[in-house]
Design brief:
It is built from five helices and seven strands.
Length: 161
Amino acid sequence: MCLFLLPTLANAAFQTPNGKWFEEKFTINGTPVWIEVIGVIKKAHAGELSQIDQIKNFIITWSKWNEVDSQFMLDLAKCESGFKIDARGDYVNGVPKAYGLYQWWQTSWNKYNFIFKTDLERTDYKDQVRMSVQVVKKYGSGDWWNCSNFIRTGTWDKTKW
């Protein structure tokens, strides 16, 4: 059997003798996996999608890749920040403590970077998605208590949570 390896900077690909293509990808934990390429999708160019559409696509893709409910992750980002990547909130004495799509506090961010042995950047919206998906997958959505309950119940009335 002859495999044709095509290494790239981000991943590798090979074609089996029967013509099937496989690409190497990595999970959020860095574990390599091989996936079958089942078709060619036209690549979108940044000018074709709004920033919000690009953000939503990244959330959907990363969530599905990590087997987390993508609709929940979209709803959570909408609730926390309205998809604003530089949103600020949870003001204490006039100073915002929360930042970004998922309104991360620096202390929580540092804690999960330590737990997951990552070095993700809180101000990078893609890293916010990566971290949030990982936290929801492993620990649930308790870090986003208010929005999680709003998403679940459809009301801000805390007596109905």
